[in-house]
Amino acid sequence: MEKVTSSHNPIHIVTTQPVISAHHLNHYFGSGELRKQALFDINLDIYPFEIIIMTGPSGSGKTTLLTLMGGLRSAQEGSLKILGQEMCGASKKQLRDVRRQIGYIFQAHNLMTFLTAKENVRMSMELHDEFLDQDMNAKAVAMLESIGLGHRADYYPEKMSGGQKQRVAIARALVSQPKIILADEPTAALDKKSGRDVVELMQKLCLVE
């Protein structure tokens, strides 16, 4: 697994604390004779406003590392700090608190097919207490308008193209203003043009302070 780093912050300060920091991170699946190591001595620091692209062959541990960074499971060996919280041996509550500050975008859009685009985006805000006394419908529509899908707010996923569905998934991930965005092959199911559009959209929205 390789790491390509690109910083888009023109005033990036070296003393800024990393939002993700891994040191000698190892991870395993299975137990006993079936135990298999998936991550080997991972060391990295990711700072605010950085865009990191991980590359590597299938099975090299990219998705495993993303799940650990996203608080979807506790780290096993070494150190992994997400927004200052140590994830190695983290409790369920600690994992949950970290997950609330992260936006996820997956290869499959994972939209709820029985909800409209607006309702899918709104669902993300309903997980955060600070939005409960706000007009979440208006915020959801505003987010969809920012990605050029305001006119599709009341459409169900089955009435949208693959690129449109993935853009709704991006809106859902970003509407709660998470501190970290994690994307696992978000363009793999799209054609070349749609994939490029999605990447440009993510870059534009993620760099807005």
What is the gist of this entry?
This protein has 209 residues and is an alpha+beta fold.
What does this structure look like?
It is a single chain. This protein folds into two domains: 1-99, P-loop containing nucleotide triphosphate hydrolases (Rossmann fold); 112-186 and 199-209, 3-Layer(aba) Sandwich (Rossmann fold), CATH 3.40.50. Strands 3-2-5-6 form a four-stranded antiparallel sheet, covered by helices on one side. Strands 1-4 form a two-stranded antiparallel sheet. The chain is globular, with a radius of gyration of 18 Å. Strand 5 (77-82) and strand 6 form a beta hairpin. The protein is α+β, with helices and mostly antiparallel strands. It contains six helices and eight strands; from the N terminus they run E-E-E-E-H-E-E-H-E-H-H-H-E-H.
